């Protein structure tokens, strides 16, 4: 073993660390050893240099060079991410809001693939670089999902629940053991009739608006439809959203939506703000209490159903249960253990909330794309007709996922209008990420999904809505983190099987029955204050079809 000193170009040579180098090392082994010592998360991106800048390509060259060895990461000196200087106290707030998607995109063009923003005392790093996203999504020695004061989910942090709790807790481990089984492809298949019947039960309401040529706010009705579907899946409850045109939203929906909206407001303003005993911070606490009460009632309803709850292995329970709550009450693991009773309530708030807030926004954007991008609605309808689909079709996942245009239309909509936009991860130590950017320990990095999905280095003509791009080799060979609408890694979405099947069936049923037309000429805005990207002022009329195109095949 030969001791050798290494330092990162960009740091002072006095920071050099000693690494023991074995002469039999391959160059990759040396990179891994040096990367580990200097906290370079992707060590194969390292290159070795003399102090004069000469490149050293072999282990022998490194061992025989004089003095400390300089290293670069992806050909770059190590550097601090840059961002707008901002104003005293508020930081970069006015550089970012209200159009945080557009402004972050602009800041990446100006400052590079990892940027730093400060906002009311909180510091956030963000990336639009898939290489950086890939390392941060991976739970590792360097990154984890830990919800600190700088994390976007701080206001709703709850270590008894999935999504809003830290990875390194026993509670997350348990939730992540039990819940995904209830949402895997096999389990989701048995919820297909539920999706089909829920959308068909909404037709009398849309028919009646069609009859009076009434235009309607798309998000309001997609929220009703998505939450009606998710509430049956998650809680086995019927929220009664389609008893008539003006049926109110169920209080579980309004309370969860308020919870998210208040959290975004409270966390956008700095950590001190949430402790105020009045105003939005107090409202956030009250709304959370209401959510708990309402959800517990829904859980008790399932637990007290006639016939009782029989226990069974997780996989059987997932196929047997009529909803996720029933699954959690039934399921036992390989040791005969159940998920602790005390974890069910908090997890069910999350499953329900994560389920309907995302799918309602996605359904709204799908309709937005249909009425905005010429020819898309006709193409989708033609595909349905060509596959013999109508409002009596018995849906199954193979049919829904076997519609190629629908599939790429959904993908392209999620690329440009994804509901989620800011999955955050926290560094466990200081770390040098791809591109040579250094993040301090305990800092939050947000994978900026919109900026990743429109990064011009990856996506040709990124703002053009073009479902056919999904057939191109370029897109098929993209980096695995260039498109991550559901995030990825151990903390990625567990509901994506359900979500994709749900939106495909609901959208197809609606498009087969109605012709959608945009109402109004204002540009459609997203809500900058909400935890998810949802359209605010988007109206359509949906006229019941009386004619359909001929089959083209
Ligand atoms: C269009 C629909 C959806 C989108 C875009 C979406 C997106 C995401 C994203 C980006 C994450 C990662 C969050 C983070 O890293 O902080 C996530 C996590 C999660 N999603 Fe979804 N989701 C969708 C639908 C659903 C549905 C329908 C459910 C359940 C019914 C669900 C349940 C969850 C849960 C429980 C987690 C947390 C996983 C964990 O913490 O380990 N999602 N989702």
Automatic annotation (TrEMBL):
Its cofactor is heme. Gene3D superfamilies: Cytochrome P450 (1.10.630.10). Pfam families: p450 (PF00067). InterPro entries: Cyt_P450, Cyt_P450_E_grp-IV, Cyt_P450_sf, Cytochrome_P450_monoxygenase. Transmembrane segments: none annotated. Keywords: Iron, Metal-binding, Oxidoreductase. Belongs to the cytochrome P450 family. PANTHER family: CYTOCHROME P450, P450, PUTATIVE (EUROFUNG)-RELATED. This is Cytochrome P450 monooxygenase. It comes from Paecilomyces lecythidis.
């Amino acid at each position: 073993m030969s001791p050798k000193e290494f330092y990162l170009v960009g740091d002072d040579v006095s920071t050099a660390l000693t690494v023991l180098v074995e002469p039999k090392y391959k160059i990759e082994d040396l990179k891994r050893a040096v990367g580990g010592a200097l906290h370079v998360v992707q060590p194969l991106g390292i290159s070795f240099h003399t102090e004069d800048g000469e490149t050293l390509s072999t282990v022998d060259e490194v061992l025989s060079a004089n003095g400390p060895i300089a290293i670069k990461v992806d050909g770059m000196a190590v550097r601090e991410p840059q961002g707008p200087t901002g104003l005293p106290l508020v930081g970069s707030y006015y550089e970012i809001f209200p159009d945080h998607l557009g402004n972050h995109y602009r800041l990446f063009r100006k400052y590079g693939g990892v940027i730093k923003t400060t906002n009311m005392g909180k510091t956030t790093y963000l990336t639009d670089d898939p290489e950086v996203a890939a390392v941060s999504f991976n739970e590792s020695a360097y990154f984890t999902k830990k919800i600190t004061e700088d994390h976007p989910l701080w206001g709703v942090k709850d270590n008894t629940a999935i999504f809003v709790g830290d990875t390194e807790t026993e509670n997350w481990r348990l939730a992540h053991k039990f819940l995904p089984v209830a949402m895997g492809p096999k389990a989701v298949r048995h919820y297909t009739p539920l999706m089909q019947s829920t959308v068909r039960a909404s037709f009398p309401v849309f028919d009646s608006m069609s009859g009076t040529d009434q235009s309607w706010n798309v998000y309001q009705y997609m929220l009703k439809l998505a939450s009606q579907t998710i509430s049956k899946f998650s809680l086995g409850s019927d929220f009664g959203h389609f008893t008539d045109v003006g049926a109110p939203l169920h209080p579980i929906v309004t309370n969860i939506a308020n919870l998210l909206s208040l959290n975004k407001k409270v966390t956008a303003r700095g950590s001190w703000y949430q402790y105020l005993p009045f105003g939005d911070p107090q409202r956030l606490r009250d709304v959370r209490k209401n959510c708990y009460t309402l959800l517990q009632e829904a859980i008790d309803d399932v637990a007290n159903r006639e016939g009782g709850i029989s226990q069974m292995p997780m996989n059987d329970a997932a196929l047997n249960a009529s909803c996720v709550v029933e699954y959690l009450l039934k399921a036992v693991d390989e040791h005969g253990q159940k998920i602790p009773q005390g974890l069910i309530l908090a997890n069910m708030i999350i499953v329900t909330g994560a389920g309907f807030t995302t799918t309602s926004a996605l359904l709204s954007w799908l309709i937005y794309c249909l009425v905005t991008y010429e020819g898309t609605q006709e193409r989708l309808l033609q595909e349905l007709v060509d596959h013999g689909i109508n409002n009596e079709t018995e849906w199954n996942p193979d049919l829904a996922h076997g519609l190629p245009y629908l599939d790429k239309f959904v993908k392209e909509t999620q690329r440009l209008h994804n509901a989620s936009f800011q999955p955050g991860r926290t560094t466990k130590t200081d770390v040098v990420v791809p591109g040579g950017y250094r993040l301090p320990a305990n800092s939050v990095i947000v994978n900026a999904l919109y900026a990743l999905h429109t990064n011009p280095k990856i996506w040709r003509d990124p703002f053009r809505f073009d479902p056919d791009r999904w057939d191109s080799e370029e897109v098929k060979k993209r980096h695995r983190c260039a498109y991550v609408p559901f995030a990825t890694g151990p903390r990625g979405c567990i509901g994506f099987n359900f979500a994709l099947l749900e939106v495909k069936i609901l959208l197809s049923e609606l498009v087969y029955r109605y012709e959608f037309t945009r109402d109004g000429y204002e540009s459609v805005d997203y809500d900058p204050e909400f935890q998810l990207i949802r359209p605010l002022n988007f109206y359509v009329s949906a006229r019941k079809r009386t004619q359909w195109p001929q089959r083209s095949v």
